Known about the structure:
Layout: H1 2-8, H2 15-22, H3 25-39, E1 44-47, H4 51-59, E2 66-69
Parallel strand pairs: 1-2
Helix pairs in contact: 3-4
Amino acid sequence: MTQKIILINPDKNDPIDVLAKVGGLEIAGIAGIILAAAANRVPVIVDGFIPIPRLHLLLGGVSTFLLQWG
């Protein structure tokens, strides 16, 4: 995953660029849900191997609210 991120080089100061290069509509939707949950200090269980690394990359410090299932 790290090599791929280096290759696509998303601008960490531009959330739209990061979403466009790292995720898609599904990842953007999940990220929005997680950000809203974290703002309210509610943990989120994420099921699925594919979105986990991308969400950790996109959400950084909010990832403490993510619980991986599966």
